[in-house]
Amino acid sequence: MELNINGIQHHVDVEPDTPLLWALRDDLAMTGTKYGCGLAQCGACTVLVDGQAVRSCVTPVEKVAGASITTIEAIEQDDLGKRVVAAWVKHQVPQCGYCQSGQVMAATSLLRQVPHPTDADIDAAMVNLCRCGTYNAIRAAIHDLASGSTDGGA
Amino acid sequence: MVNGLFDDAPLMQQGPVNLSRRRFMLTSAGAATGAFVLGFGLPARQARAQAAKGPKYRGTQVPAFLEIRPDNTVRLQSPFIEGGQGTFTAMAQIVGEELDADPSTFLVENAPAGDEYAVMDSGMRITGGSMSVRNGYPAMRRLGALGREMLLQAGAQHLGVPVSELTTQPGQVVHAASGRTVNYGDLAHVAMDLPVPDPASVKLRDPSQFRWIGKSVKRLDIYGKSTGKVDYAIDVRVDGMLHAAVQHAPRLGMTVGSIRNEEQVRQMKGVHSVHRLPGAAAVVAERWWHARRGVEALLVNWVEAEPGAASDIRVMPADFSTEEFRKHLATVSGKEENAETRGDVTRGLKNAHTVVEATYFSQYVNHGQLEPPSALARYNPDGTLDIWLPNQAPDMFRADMARRTGMDAEKITIHSPLLGGFFGRHFLYDHGSPYPQAIALAKATGRPIKLIWTREEEFLRDALRPMAAVRFRAGLDATGRPVALDVVSATEGATEGLGTKRGKDLDPTALEGLTNKAYDIPDRRIAQLFVRNPATLGYWRSVGNSMNDFLYETFLDELADKGHQDPYELRLHLLRDNRRLTTLLKAVADLSGGWKRGPFTAADGSRRARGIGMASPFGSEAAAIAEVSIENGRVRVHEVWEAIDPGKVVNPAIVEGQVNGAIALGLSQVLLEETVYENGMPRARNYDGYPILALNQMPRVHVKIVESGEKMGGVGEPPLPAIPPAVANAVSTLTGRRIRSMPLSRHDFAS
Question: Exposed site from B301, B316, B356, B366, fewest CB < 10 Å?
């Protein structure tokens, strides 16, 4: 199976129905993408497939062969992703941090589609769970990005 | 700077690497010329450090804690584990303040097991009970000051001047007379070889001169956590490792009988082997996905535990139901053991103008930390064992591993990566952690094993926050104020719930939050009616207070209503002789724009009300006000104001983050969470059946930190317990329906 991940072509020797998450973690040693629930409930495994947030724990690799996959490891190679990370640092968002790879990917996807999201847009898009309760910091960071006051240099 | 620090950390490396801490430390010592790596495999220095260890002072073995590198970064071995609560940053602030080194130059790791890191007053080492900063504060300040003394001594040798002529500035020894400076990193190789000075001799910095303690220093772990660069236990890899997954017995106590399709599963793609473990079946494979598919395909005949067999296991009965257990707790009679008495409650109730009686309930809840449990075990050729796992007490875990394996504890190296969620989940719970299984599988296969529990297997073996039914009887005087209070809680505490035998004394965690309330009620009794739980119990963020302050504070509002008292004014009256809590209660009212109970109509046209809750958990004080409305029959929380007084604080921004997080968990509990058992099984095995608070349910949060200057209290847990009652009291006011149990999702408020 050929996968285009972070602009690099990878060959992975897995069955077509293997979830992308486990190809990333076990075959490619890219462990920034997290396992949380395995049911697309928590969002810790979120990656971008052609720019869209996707739950890699329920996405078979065969469905994304030929697509452009972005993981947290390369998020700063993307201008918008780099700004999201900078906003996360500025707002000191993470606590335990385990869900934050997925949160950063989800926020990047949201801002790509809706550059100036309302609270309702954020509520609808940011459904990733955070047990530490960093939700208000996430919301503040996204609003900050939407208003354009956070650049990539924070 | 921060990302540079993380780039060097051993657990952050990409790809399959050998992660033996010992080997890494020695390698890095060899690679970085002049770097001073201490405390591991260096018996001479350890022996020297031993000399500085006295019964009076803990954590004085400076070389075991500090490595200062040639680039002036400070590597600190923290006695307390980082699980999101900000402890690593706080430790860098405290040590850095006295060492005279900027906290941003610190790289902090969880220290290995070992007596030298037992810095707590108790002589133990546990990250929990919101103890780290308040209990580590004196030792870690002293540690920094001792380190600075040693650097000054080395500076005197280096510059050839008397130590009395030297001072420091961040990261440097300074000789003012000649204008010369030397970086700590250039002195460390000499400094850390010097004897540790007498701990009694060091002079600590005057708090008025603090540069970092008390300031909102940026957290050290933010960039790494925002870019997926930090590794949790679940991410660790070692050479030659195999992956494992388990299928737990549906009920604790059952064992594997036969496996009907063992041979077929062994033939499945990628499967290495199939194993029988105590209370579980396991599949080992080259990849975890294969292990998981294999183990889910296993058809196991589970055998019931033998009735009456002596066992250290809490055998889960086949007919256990939380609904039935709730009824049992509400009606069971038995010995009532007094935990707190004042005055004469019998007389107080007899003389009361009105007596109010009600029974209140708390539910089981799961931890629900986002990182599923895992353990990586590796036997080494020399017979030693390395193990990586999330844990909040390395020495206790290591002792348990020694007991289970029959190995000498010294031959077990425990690695404690960052925790992907804390909340009390990573304490030592029998059957609650995968490490015994990982060790057994590593032994059986002769290969390193990384075992990850699926979320479903985690929900089956998580330790639960206890249930309780609390019978309240209160007497009101002629003015409608409470003068007598009798409280009997049918429950089992989390601590006594860890084992199968009850301790001699009452478990304080059973009743905390019913006991130690500051309200001036002259005649009272708080008692426990012990009821053994079939489920395995554990600590959940803010432990007994997580439920007991809900139970007490909502009943207090019921009393206020019965006595025609305003709940805010009544609390002020009952706290009239307590200046600290009066100040705090007024502070939260002010923060909310003045106490306004409602119901009232908000600007958006919704009907709303506000409620109050207070709590005195873990050495701190908290008061909260919540504003709620009803939307489509469900409670919506719009605003939460919380004032917290932890005495004094080390990092206000981290405190505010912890208040936000505790509010989220408190809301999650009161609005949504309940672990339901039917037929001995949890109904929910994943987040789909066990919803937790999501972003769109998070209210605006307003925090006021009150530094009363009282003894330093905890921060991670104390903001939680006031939240559930604040919400429930607001809902009672808004709907006119008395709320006596959680979660509110059990109630339909449409009508």
Answer: B301
- In this predicted structure, the answer to whether residue B72 has a pLDDT above a threshold of 90 is yes
Range name among B33-47, B235-249, B254-268, B598-612 with the lowest pLDDT average: B33-47
CATH superfamily label, A75-147: [2Fe-2S]-binding domain (1.10.150.120)
Mean pLDDT of chain B: 92
Q: State how far the alpha carbon of B232 is from the alpha carbons of B9, B12, B235, B249, B465, in Å.
A: 12, 9, 5, 27, 25
Q: Look up residue B585 and give its DSSP letter.
A: H
Q: Tell me which residues of chain B, numbers 359 to 418, contact chain A at a CB-CB cutoff of 8 Å.
A: 368-372, 418
What's the pLDDT score for residue B677? 98
Mean pLDDT of B25-48: 32
Q: For position A120, what pLDDT does the model report?
A: 97
CATH number of the domain that residue B427 is part of = 3.30.365.10
DSSP assigned state of B418: B
pLDDT of residue B41: 28
Residues in chain A predicted with pLDDT less than 70, given as ranges, are 149-154
pLDDT of B213 above 90: yes
Do B290 and B431 lie in one domain? The reply is: yes
Q: Calculate how close chain B gets to A33, using CA atoms only, in Å.
A: 7
Residues 6+ apart with CB under 8 A from B62: B49, B52, B143, B146, B147, B150, B192, B196
Subunit contact A22:B700, Cβ cutoff 8 A = no
Q: What is the pLDDT of residue B498?
A: 86
pLDDT at B639: 98
pLDDT of residue B312: 77
CATH 3.10.20.30 in chain A, residues?
2-74
Q: Which of B228, B663, B693 faces A33 most closely, judged by CB atoms?
A: B228
Q: Give how far A129 is from chain B: nearest CA, Å.
A: 6
Reply yes or no on whether the pLDDT at B602 is more than 70: yes
Give the other-Cβ count within 10 Å of B314's Cβ.
Answer: 19
Residue B455 is nearest to which of A18, A27, A38, comparing CB atoms?
A38
Instruction: Write out chain B residues lying below 8 Å of A43, CB-based.
Output: none
Would you call A75 and B227 a contact, using CB atoms and an 8 Å cutoff? yes
CB–CB contact A96 B237 (8 Å) = no
Q: B398 to each of B382, B392, B401, B410, B610, how far by Cα in Å? A: 18, 11, 5, 9, 48
Identify the closest residue of chain B to A137 by CA–CA distance.
Answer: B657
Instruction: Clarify whether residues B440 and B469 are in a common domain.
Output: no
Looking at the DSSP bridge assignments, the partners of residue B280 are B248, B277
* Residues near B662 by beta carbon (within 8 Å), at least 6 away in sequence: A133, B541, B542, B716, B717, B718, B719, B720, B723
Q: Is 90 exceeded by the pLDDT of residue B451?
A: yes
Give the CATH superfamily of A2-74.
Beta-grasp domain (3.10.20.30)
In a domain, B312, yes or no: no
Q: Quick one: which of B248, B371, A49 has its CA closest to A58?
A: A49
Same domain, B473 and B528: yes
Nearest chain A residue to B454, by CA: A37
Q: Which among B560, B603, B619, B567 is positioned nearest to B588, based on CA atoms?
A: B567
Tell me the pairing of strands B242-248 and A2-5: unpaired
Residue B644 lies in a domain: yes
Q: Select the more confidently predicted residue: B87 or B121.
A: B87
Residue B325 lies in a domain: no
Is it the case that residue B694 has pLDDT exceeding 70? yes
CA separation for the pair B673, B454 (Å, rounded): 20
Do the chains contact at A92 and B288, CB–CB below 8 Å? no
Evaluate if pTM is beyond 0.90. Answer: yes
- Please name the residue of chain A whose CA is at the shortest distance from the CA of residue B290: A18
Residue contact B84–A138, C-beta within 8 A: no
Q: Which secondary structure element, helix H or strand E, spans residue B631, and what is its range?
A: strand B621-631
Residues B556 and B651 in one domain: yes
